[in-house]
Predict the structure of FG-GAP repeat protein.
Amino acid sequence: MKRRIVIFISLVSAIVLWWASAAYALPDTAEQDDRFGSSAASGDFNGDGYADLAAGVPYEDVGAATDAGAVNVTYGSAGGLAAAGAQLWHQDSGTVLDDAQEGDLFGASVAAADFNKDGFADLAVGAPGEAVLASNGFDAGFAGAVQILYGSAAGLTDAGNQFWHQDSGTVADAVELGDAFGSALAAADFGGSSHADLAVGVVHEELGSGLFQAGAVNVLYGSAGGITDAGNQFWHQDSPGIADTAEHSDSFGARLTAGNFGSDSRADLAVTVFNESIGGVAGAGAVHVIYGSSSGLTSSGSQLWHQDSSGIADSAETWDHFGDSLAAADLGKGTQDDLVVGVPYEDVGTVADAGAVHVIFGYSSGLISSGSQLWHQDSSGIQDTAEPGDLFGSALAAADFGKSTKADLAVGVAAQNAAGGIVDAGAVHVIYAASDGLAATGNAVWDQDSLGIADDAELYDFFGSVLTAGRFGLANQADLAAGVTTEDVGAVSDAGAVNVLYGAADGLASAGNQFWHQDP
């Protein structure tokens, strides 16, 4: 039987001391089961040229509201991420719309982009547990909502913040019990207006009679005034022109990422169908790609990818969950972005749930299977060995960490055992780009017992369960934040933490690495 491990998404902030690693604390107090860093996004919220980090804490208690959720924000600088000016946001902050309530899970997902084209990144925060009063007067629990906080020269502010759900204005569909609107987010310019747009996963959306948890994605477009309902879209597997058919428990929209996979300047959207059955193979998983156009996302040319797709290595197998993680970046072929698809429950040979990652390369005509790659811990030249339950591919982040000008790939192995039999301590593989895509040359493995890395590998830490990248400062290369969402902070169990490794000309290095958590 395949093991199921709850994996959270993470992102954190840090200060760099170039000559040593260090631990830093952020606003609020580390508490049991907060799971700091369960979601993450990187964006320049104050326009100073350095990426800032937003770390979701969806199980944060706000006053008496259990699991209301919060987001910590830390700002980048020439010296890297700095605690100065760090913020804590929740639904009781300032004039933020709505109120912090039990089980809202504010911060379960986050995405950063410039929705109003004012030169400052803005932050979208998912609260999939939000109860929303529907237009018919029904209080729909776990309907879900998304909050938008706008950037400024002073950083994120509550001025003009927005609160979106499926009964907002003309937003498609309607608020319903258990939909979980906001369970996943992705932001990019899908329509070429130069304003970023927002894709919102509604992973438990019911479509028609009996199609419970079939899943859907709402798309809200950006404008000079920010996110708007004008021209909004509602995508699912029964949308005209979209391959396949909506089915019970497919979970379309479980994961989202955006990248420019084709020849034009518009971003495209990749959508995971987590539980999709392929040819009768239950839970094999699939990924839809919906391409951008001058009028926004369009079904024209849309694609459906899975492990039985022509030219894709391996084959669809029961409960592989192809698409359990996604990333997009230019990994070395051409100038288009490429799509990275995690399959953490992939069996490698006879090794159950060892995990694997597919890379599908982008060309002028879009994503093509020719030349696609399959990576795992038994791939030639890759360090370490595939072991049962490692979950290689449980998280992904792609950015230029060094060595070349192309993006490199960080792969979370959240349930990797550390040396000495430390179960599920977690690790991160880094595979660097070459002229023809990713190459094993110079690949590295990091964990909390790596030389110079802050803290120590411990039982059930799940280091690398969340990954995100951004140029936080110090050098011209991107840096990597690795979530340790069940890290014990002092005596506080599962409070959560994030390790930050900084990029350099020769790739990620331990020099100046950081260890972030909420103040115990």
Summary: Confidence is low (pLDDT under 50) at residues 1-20.
